[in-house]
Amino acid sequence: MRLKKEVKKFMELKELTPNMLHRLVDKILVKADGSANIQYSSPPPPLSRQVYQ
Prior knowledge:
Elements lengths: L1 H10 L6 H7 E6 L5 E5 L13
Antiparallel strand pairs: 1-2
């Protein structure tokens, strides 16, 4: 349930900031053919006010 609450907080925002992206994504792997594999953080650490700045 914590993940659902975290996602709802992000859904209310109008833009994706670098801080938010770093919290959601662990790493992005790009293959030689240009395809990408996104590895998401799980579970993300709790949100704090500094993420919105």
